[in-house]
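Sequence design from tokenized structure. All designs in this work follow the same two-part layout: the structure record, then the generated sequence. An example of the structure record is given first.
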């Protein structure tokens, strides 16, 4: 039996060349993938990023209506990491979790035909509740971009665009009411 670090004799040049080639190929692939992702993500304008997020949320919403989705964590790490959680009523959350709560950036797709008429929320969460700035899309096609409160209501500075984006209500909001233009 040989001890760890004990000399075992010469290593063939073929083995050295093989492993050097393998390692350089591996790092080359990782570097190429990293650059591809970096170019794709960081070359998008904020409007393009917003359009991608909305497209992603709409695709999940479409899947909700076509199939019975399982309830609970259906993908990733819903304890402490990134995951996807589906609810019995058809709502879906995809994003960051800390201590099994929505915490960090995420997309919450509301169950179809909910009383608040919201389609989806894209933004930050803290300890399971919406926090800070967000995008909220409504069933009538309007979109709100601005600050929200923990009840998903427009609260703070923001803009509500109608479905054609032809008109907008901009100003300070309090519990979904525009209080100052």
């Amino acid at each position: 039996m040989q001890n760890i670090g004990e000399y075992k004799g010469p290593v063939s040049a073929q083995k050295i060349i093989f492993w050097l080639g393998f390692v350089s190929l591996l790092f080359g692939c990782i570097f190429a993938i990293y650059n591809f992702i970096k170019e794709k993500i960081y070359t998008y304008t904020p409007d393009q990023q917003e359009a991608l997020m909305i497209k992603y949320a709409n695709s999940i919403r479409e899947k909700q209506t076509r199939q019975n989705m399982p309830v609970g964590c259906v993908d990733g790490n819903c304890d402490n990491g990134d995951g996807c959680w589906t609810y019995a009523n058809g709502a879906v959350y995809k994003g960051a979790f800390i201590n099994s709560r929505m915490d960090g950036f995420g997309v919450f797709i509301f169950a179809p035909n909910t009383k608040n008429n919201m389609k989806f929320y894209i933004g930050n969460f803290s300890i399971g509740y919406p926090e800070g700035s967000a995008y909220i899309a409504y069933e009538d096609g309007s979109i709100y971009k601005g600050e929200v409160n923990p009840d998903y209501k427009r609260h703070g500075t923001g803009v509500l665009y109608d479905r054609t984006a032809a008109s907008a209500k901009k100003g300070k909001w309090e519990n979904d009411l525009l209080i100052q233009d």
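Residues 13-42 form the longest helix (30 residues). We note this feature because it recurs in several other targets discussed in the main text.
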